[in-house]
Polar amino acid transport system ATP-binding protein (Microbacterium invictum), 250 residues
Amino acid sequence: MTRIASSTALLRATGVWKSFGDREVLRGVDLSLATHEVVALIGASGSGKSTLLRCLGLLEPIDDGQIFLGDADISDPRVDANSVRARFGAVFQSFNLFPHLSVLDNVTLASRVVRRMPRRAAEERALALLDRVGLADKAKDHPDRLSGGQQQRVAIARAIATDPEVLLLDEITSALDPLLVGEVLELVRQLASDGATILMATHEMAFARDVAHRVVFLDEGRVLEEGTPAEVLAAPREARTREFLARFTA
C-alpha cells in the first residue's frame, strides 16, 4: 500500500449540509482526504454517498458548511467553479461516455477543451492511458462496441487524462456484470499503488479492506464511524455499522 505523503488534508469538508426539498441528504458531514490517500466511503443506498461526492466536486451546491481544496474555500460562491472542477477527476455508476465520439475522442475531450492541450499531445497521452488500461486497440471504436467493463475503464482513463488532484469514484462497479468487476477494481488498485488521491464510494468491502487507508461509514447523511479498514470493517464500534456490514457476511 502506498505511503500517505502528508497528514495535511488536500480535500476537506466541514459541517456540510445538503437538502433536496424537505429531504435532508447530508447533515453536517466532516470529511478529510490527504494527498495520496485512498478513502473508501461506505453506507447503505440513500445514505448520501453520491450526493457527498457530487458536492465535493462542485457538481451540486451545498446548503451550509465549507469545502476546502488545499487552502482554498471552494464552496465560496465567488469561486470559479469550472476551474475547480478541472482539478477533479470523477467517474460515476453510469459510464457517461459520449456515444457519438470515439474512445480516443472521449478520452482527449477534457484535455483539449478544458486544458487547451494541442490535439497531437492530447492523443499521445490518451493512447498511452488506453494502453495502460488494456484498450489501445479500441481507440477508434465507439462506446457501443465495448463491454460495460471496457466502457468503465475508458471512463477512468478519461478521468485521469488531465492529471486531477483528486479522483472521485462513485460506485463504479455497481452497473457491471459481476464477471467484469474485477478488471475495473484492478485498475483502481493500480492507480492507488501509483499514489493517486482517491475518495471512492463502494460496496466492495474486500477491496476497501485491501486498498483503502481509511474507511468512512456514512449513515443517514452523517459520518457515523471512520478509521482504518481493520478498525471499521473488522471491529466496528457502532451498532449501525455492524448491522450494515452484516449484509456482506451473511
